[in-house]
Design a protein that fits this description.
Length: 303
């Protein structure tokens, strides 16, 4: 998130962007508290917990604002009637591995992670700590069944909190961890890391969604931020875009036509909170409560 602050303040001299980074599952609760006490002190909120935005819009808590370019945002990623909320960035999980520790490896299927040679070599984010990771496990098990998860447990993976540290751990020379399917790896080559999307399974992708609060203390500044984030300049730097008029990464279709993902499925899945909570508790019964340092230690804010 530091790069967003740096680039935004560089683009608009005199503007100061103050960011609060935390897990979406905590930030949405804090906003609900602000709304309940009629004491809103944030201007803009950008979250993974996408199911909250229609509720906030229905409660008349969001500012209707259509920044330049919002007309190009895919309809599934926005409130088409009033532009009270809209996707700002496409996020996704990707399979990664150390090309130094595992030369010649290619993790282009989730079955690959079950091979005997990768026992004690996997690092994975707890599925019961973050909904987008939980959705990844749900998608895999919908196809391969619980037997797949039982086999994964026999691989003795290292479980950590959050996806942002997986690549760091995989790169560590003193770590046996060498592969993961819970990672935020992008499209640019990364030294020492191989990456692939699964070729015959669905991977998770979604539109990280944002909105401006109706009672935002600095609404004009928030409008400028949202217009900046939706600009072609920024969207073209992100890889896949929420905008239909921005070209996809080289060699790939746009996100809506990528055959092994459905970027609209996550929002529908998130809206069924009873099923999500039941699944989270099922994994918690298998893995225990998430242990370890906060995923925010890395300084990134994907959740």
């Amino acid at each position: 998130m530091d790069d967003i602050k740096r680039d935004f303040e560089g683009k608009f001299p005199g503007m100061s962007l103050n960011l609060t980074i935390d897990l979406s599952k905590y930030l949405d609760v804090r906003l609900d508290e602000q709304l309940a006490s009629d004491n809103v002190y944030v201007d803009s909120i950008i979250l993974q917990t996408v199911h909250n935005f229609p509720r906030w819009a229905q409660d008349n808590a969001l500012l209707n604002y259509a920044p330049l370019g919002v007309d190009q945002v895919y309809p599934a990623f926005k409130d088409s009637e009033s532009s009270s909320w809209y996707g700002l960035e496409i996020l996704y999980w990707k399979n990664i591995w150390s090309t130094e520790k595992l030369p010649g490896a290619d993790f282009d299927t989730f079955q690959e992670f079950l091979k005997p040679g990768y026992k004690n070599r996997l690092v994975l984010a707890y599925p019961n700590d973050e909904d987008a990771v939980l959705f990844a496990f749900d998608l895999i098990m919908q196809r391969h069944g619980r037997a797949w998860f039982d086999a994964l447990l026999k691989q003795n993976p290292r479980w950590i909190r959050g996806v942002t540290r997986t690549s760091t751990i995989i790169r560590e020379c003193n770590s046996s961890a060498a592969a993961s399917f819970t990672s935020t790896a992008g499209f640019r080559p990364s030294p020492g890391l191989g990456s692939a999307f699964p070729k015959d399974d669905l991977f998770v992708s979604w539109a990280q969604t944002g909105a401006i609060l109706k009672k935002a203390p600095h609404p004009e500044g928030a409008k400028l931020l949202h217009a900046y984030l939706l600009s072609r300049e920024v969207q073209e730097s992100m890889g896949w875009s929420v905008r239909a008029d921005v070209p996809p990464p080289a060699g790939l279709p746009d996100i809506m036509h990528m055959p092994t993902t459905n970027p609209t499925a996550f929002a529908r899945w998130m809206s069924d909170r009873q099923t999500v909570e039941r699944l989270r508790l099922w994994f918690e019964s298998k893995l225990g409560t998430p242990q370890g340092e906060s995923p925010l230690v890395s300084g990134k804010g994907y959740d």
